[in-house]
Structures are given as C-alpha cells and as structure tokens.
Amino acid sequence: MKQTRLFILYTFLLTFLTHGILLYLMRNAIIDFYHIGGILLYSVGGISPTVFALYFIFKKEDKTFQNTFITSLITLKYSIKYWLFSLLYPLFLGLLFVTLYAYQHATDFRLVTPWFYFIHIFLYAIFVGGLEEIGWRGYLQEKLEPKLSPLMIATFIGLLWALWHVPLLLMASRNSGFIDILPFLLGFFMFNLYLTFLYHKTRSVLLTIVFHASINATRRVTGFRNLITGSPLEYILIMVLIIIGYALLLWFSHKPTKKTHNNII
To answer: How far apart are CA 97 and CA 263, in angstroms?
Structure first.
C-alpha cells in the first residue's frame, strides 16, 4: 500500500502545484488559459496520473502486474456491449442534462457543436483526458481490487477524482465558492462510479479510456457542462445516476472479474 499512497501523493502534488500556479496567474490577469505558459502548466498537471502510474508500474511492480497492465491496454476483443457502453453511455448522460436544461428554461433542444465533430473531438480526448485512466484504473484500481470491495473502491477513487479536479473547476468557475463547483464535483463522482464498474467487469484500461474520452467529447458537443446551474432538478438527476451507479456495483460485486479477462467474449 506504500506505493499506492505515494502514487496518490505525487499525483496530487504535481497537479495542485501546476494548476494552482496557473489559477493564481489567471486570477491576477498575468496570463490567460490559452497562453503558452498556461497550456504547459495545464498539460503537466493533467498528465500526472498517467506519468506516475507508468513510473510505478514499470519501476516498482513485478512482471505479472506489468503484463496484466499491458494486456488491459491493448486487448480489443471484448463483448460489443462493453464497447457500446463505453462509447454511448456518456453521450446518453450528456443528452439527459441538455434535455433537462431545455425543460427547465423552456428552450429548444440544441447542440453547441455539430454531431459530426464528435468523432474528431473523441479522438483528441483520448489523449487529453482519457489517458488519465492509466493512473486511476490501470494502477490505482488494479492495486485496490484485491483488498477492497467495488463499492469501497468506487467511493474512494470517486472522492479522490473529484478533489483532484478542484483547481481545474476553479479556473473555469466565475466565482470561487464551493457551491459553484459542487454540482461538478458530484458529477465527477457520478461518472467515476461507472468507470469503476466498467473496469471491475472487464479489467480493461482501454475501455475506460474510451469511456473517459466519450465524456469529454460529449461535453464539447452537447455543452452540458455550461448548462449546469445547480438547480434542484439537476441535483436530483445526479443523485439518481449515483444511485444507479452504486446499484450496478452492488449487483456485480459478488461476481469479481478474474484477471484472465473473462469478459472478452
């Protein structure tokens, strides 16, 4: 567990340092997010889970763990239902929030980006965001699987993942109050439940990368992130989705997936 704790510590230190500096520079109008320095600081902080996971996997773990990780990253032969879940479920969730916004504000349903941009953004999001799952699933969840139940893993990583995003949320938030970012923290926690479920069932880092990239692509196409206002109905929807996520984990928690990738067919 020492290496797991160090992974978490190093990941948070690098992200909070770089994103904290960027937040300070932006709040004081020294640079903006799209300045070359801003992009560099954002990128270094964003890849911290990936970088430290690869370090611990290939420097500190044995050959069995390394081979399991490589297999989970390159294997393509999984049931079509898991591919569809990874690609389409985030899109379905994004459309739920857009529909809710349209209902609350009596506006027409509309996308901020044409549908055909989804694949382009999705491919980009694999590398900008998706590769985080090498750290959160390929290393951290894999290390925790033999020791904790799926529900405990989901709760633990969910809290970490939400907290890890706080500096980024503060950059995007017009205000600095906790209430302004609370819906997004709950959203990260909710999405993590489905990522935890997906990895627990398949032991596939690749599928979780696809799921994560689909979240980011859906956010860009539907614009659902900018439509969240913290209304009671939005909180209700997020809590319902959290309950569904826990229900999935509870339903399958008595059927732990073996490391032999028993969901390939």
So the answer is: 31
Residue 243 lies in a domain: yes
Q: Do 16 and 48 touch, CB atoms closer than 8 A?
A: no
Domain count, the chain: 1
Give the predicted TM-score (pTM) of the model. 0.91
Boundaries of domain holding 84: 72-252
Domain membership of residue 196 (yes or no) is yes
In a domain, 142, yes or no: yes
> Left (φ > 0), alpha (ψ -120 to 50) or beta: where does 259 sit?
alpha
Q: Is the pLDDT of residue 264 over 70?
A: no
Write out pLDDT tens, residues 59-105: 999 999 999 999 999 999 999 999 999 999 999 998 898 888 888 87
Q: Cβ atoms within 10 A of the Cβ of 117, count? A: 14
Q: Is 183 among the domain residues?
A: yes
